[in-house]
Amino acid sequence: MADLAGKRIVVGVCGGIAAYKAVEVIRHLVDAGAHVIPVMTKGAEHFIGRTTLSALASEPVQMSLWDEASPIPHTKLGQSADLVLVAPATARLLGAYAHGLSNDLMTNVLIATRAPVIVCPAMHTEMWEHQAVQHNIALLASRGVHIVEPEDGRLAGGDSGKGRLASTTAILARVHQVLGSGDLQGAHVVVSAGGTREPIDAVRVIANRSSGKQGYAVAAEAASRGARVSLISTVDLPIPAGVSVIAVETAAEMQKAIEGLWQQTDVMVMCAAVADFRPVSCTSEKIKKEGGIPQIILEPTPDILAGLGAVKRSDQVLVGFAAETSDLVANAQSKLERKNLDLMVANDVSQPGVGFQHDTNAVTFLTPNQPLHLLPLSDKRNVARALLDIVVKIRQSKATS
Ligand code: C5P
């Protein structure tokens, strides 16, 4: 994805243990085609070497107002930037920026620029929660500075709590969002994830082994490519940045949520393992074992995907998943046609490491009238990336036909 081509991004790195993560952020920005100009504070040098940033970014790192060839690097950098990103941003930097104190190159660039600014704070929980820091954050946000909030997790020195730098994915998603880039920019992508649970009585359900991880990976990847993402989920996993979640439990609830969004859906990725059968009735009391073995009568659930396929507009992209244990391609091909899909993602869940509950997947992509595309075992984010690459191509061909 070279969708940041031509964008000049100043990346500021402050002195915190998370400075090493800036390396990964810079690498991804450069891979996406951006021209990255690194700026470091003096404190950052305690955590990361100049050479590392200079080698990975598009220009040598700059640290001072006075050492560089240009006499006014602060205005030059600020004026020419399409975006200034500070990751990690320390309490000192936030305070100086909020109060207009320009005492080093980075604060000068921030105050001189008219480009959008994203700050990604990282610090110990006590510092993050301090009123002064929170006040500065609120002040910056009120001026239109984009804040990528820190996460809960392990901090330096064995502590843990809120204050850890946001994930690279979350930071990159915000960059794409702010710059209006990404090959799914402007698209509304709806993803279903997890296995449905169909109640038998007050405490028992018919469930399946789906973990929801593949759906969450698709949602995260779509958001990082600029899409507006709605995730219809039966599971409680960490919510990816930029994704809004609708929690559901049964096939009927999932159908209602999806159909409610359908008119404004550009891409529907039906990852969820929807129950095919549900009990005809559910007792409000727990069924007692003293009453003997119960007879549970089942009825079919609505096939949500087939229903959408029947009413699909020509501009909408519909993606299904087929979890099979035999005759993978033949079964998936027949579902692709029967449900009127644009893409079917088939996986043989009898194979080791594939599908349900694993962090990895191996899939075969089937599209109408196109050769099969096989993706060997890889992590679910990688599967999500390949899936959305195909979706983008389908959207392009629909737009031109
Ligand atoms: O026919 P089968 O259940 O194998 O098809 C799988 C695909 O159909 C998945 O994308 C799944 O989310 C979807 N599905 C559905 N409603 C059902 C059953 C499956 O949307 N009741």
SSE topology sketch:
Blueprint: E1 8-13, H1 19-31, E2 35-40, H2 50-56, H3 73-80, E3 83-89, H4 91-98, H5 105-112, E4 117-121, H6 125-129, H7 131-142, E5 146-147, E6 151-154, E7 160-164, H8 168-179, E8 188-193, E9 198-199, E10 205-206, H9 213-224, E11 228-233, E12 243-247, H10 251-261, E13 267-270, E14 277-279, E15 298-300, H11 304-311, E16 317-324, H12 328-338, E17 343-348, E18 360-366, E19 373-379, H13 380-400
Helix pairs in contact: 3-5, 4-7, 8-9, 9-13
Bound molecules: cytidine-5'-monophosphate (C5P).
Look up the CATH topology of the largest domain: Rossmann fold
Tally the beta strands.
Answer: 19
| CATH architectural group of the largest domain | 3-Layer(aba) Sandwich
Q: What is the assigned CATH homologous superfamily of the largest domain?
A: CoaB-like
Number of domains: 2
First-residue to last-residue Cα separation = 24 Å
**Number of helices in the DSSP assignment:** 13
Question: Uncertain runs with pLDDT below 50, 5 residues or more?
Answer: none
Shape: elongated
Hetero ligands: cytidine-5'-monophosphate
The radius of gyration over CA amounts to: 25 Å
Q: Which structural class do the helices and strands define? A: alpha/beta
